[in-house]
Amino acid sequence: MGRRIAAGRAPNGRARGRGVAPSGLRAGVRAVTTLSESEREQVARVLPGLWETAPPVTTACPRLVVPSPAWASWQRVAKRALDITVAAVLLVLAAPLMLLIALAIKLDSPGPVIFRQRRVGKDGRPFTFYKFRGMVADAETRLHEVAHLNEVDGPIFKSRRDPRVTRVGRVLRRTSLDELPQLWNVLRGDMSLVGPRPPLPTEVTRYEPWQRDRLLVPGGITGLWQVSGRNLLGFEDMVRLDLEYITRWSLWLDLRILLRTILVVLTARGAY
Fold first, then answer.
1. Percent of the chain with pLDDT over 90
2. Going by DSSP bridges, is the β-strand pair 63-66/51-52 parallel, antiparallel, or unpaired?
3. Using an 8 Å Cβ cutoff, are 179 and 187 in contact?
4. What does the domain layout of the chain look like in residue ranges?
């Protein structure tokens, strides 16, 4: 039994899902993706052999067939061991850099060094999410002022021209250094190094039923869509890649994504 996401067209020209079968991710996923040729090549570097040759449902929309094995107990333990080991080592190595970043934030703009926010984790459990503050202190209360600048479809907000971002924040966001405090989230067990990006509670309330399946596993600092186009992707493409990660997970896949994340961060492709 599989799941099929029928292809339609969103107002911005991207295909979007119209409906899903009742079976969940654990039974498998069959999705019609809307990625461009270059974006599919990015995914193929991480998941070789992903695309199945099949008659397209819409033009330039290949069919994606993904098995969905359950994560065994030993796999969960191995993933957690990898998370703890890598996060602990990185926190120690990055400590001097994190102190310099904290000083730069303090000198650049008033407000706390660490930005705290409620996010939704595995199985819908909320947790406190940490990152270096890259915006003005009252950024969340001013979101309505910049809503018209949103460049991404769906329930999320992303903009290259967001005036709430500080000078230091622009550097941190472009280099992804603002994410370093999330290593503490990983050590606490709130997040994993690799996984779907943990959403805001307000975003989850706007999810379609099939999109909630990305909450079946812990959220991650990086993930498949982050190394396959990052913010250049539409929201539904991000979710579909998250579902692919869940159904095809392995330690080797996590390692490949982590290694590719280094290249993506160094090139700053899709970062803003």
1. 61
2. antiparallel
3. no
4. 4-66, 75-267
User: Which tens digits make up the pLDDT trace of 153-168?
Assistant: 889 988 888 999 999 9
CA distance 134 to 142: 14
H or E element in which residue 219 lies: strand 219-222
219 contact partners, CB below 8 Å, separation of at least 6: 119, 120, 121, 122, 190, 191, 192, 195, 196, 197, 198, 199
Which string of DSSP letters, residue by residue, matches the chain?
A: ---EE-B---TTS---B----S--GGG-EEEE----HHHHHHHHHHSTT-EEP---SBTTB-EEEE--PPPPHHHHHHHHHHHHHHHHHHHHHHHHHHHHHHHHHHHHSSS-SEEEEEEE-GGG-EEEEEEE--B-TTTGGGHHHHGGG--SSSS----TT-TTB-HHHHHHHHHTGGGTTHHHHHHHTSEEEESSPPPPHHHHTT--GGGGGGGGS-EEEE-TTTTTTGGGS-HHHHHHHHHHHHHT--HHHHHHHHHHHHHHHHHTTT--
- Terminal Cα-to-Cα distance of the chain (whole angstroms): 39
pTM (predicted TM-score): 0.74
Torsion angles phi and psi, residue 221, rounded to 5: -75, -40
Structure token digits, residue 258:
């982590």
Q: How far apart are CA 233 and CA 258, in angstroms?
A: 19
